[in-house]
Amino acid sequence: MGIVADKIRELMKKLILLLITLTTFTHVSYASFPVSDTLKVKQDTVQTETVAQYHLRMQKMGFDIDDCRCDDCKKFKGINNIPKNGEPVQKKKTNYKSLFATLGIWLVVAAVVFAIWLIWWIARGLENFGNGPSVIT
Length: 137
Known about the structure:
By secondary structure, the chain is mostly helical. The protein is built from four helices and no strands. The radius of gyration is 39 Å and the shape is flat.
């Protein structure tokens, strides 16, 4: 058992040495390739597109242009006019009628479900009424 332990120690020493060597080389040789010190600056240019080009691009991507919310379309349609020098923005009135109709439908459905459950619960109680109270043993 002493010989096997010695061989394992030697193997472990070699593995640790290999690990240290690999770690050192990866950190030392990080920039072993030639690096140029010159910086080439390329000026970017801003490419602008017209509203018609924008709409055409959006149509090609599959968007519905009838619901466009860009500033030009808003001006054209008269929706939410852009404020000029602090003028108030027109707000579209909220249609509460559809909101209340939807809420009313959900309340009716909930009331029907509750009524069915209540009738079932009462009927089940009447079935077991003649048996007397249940005894827990």
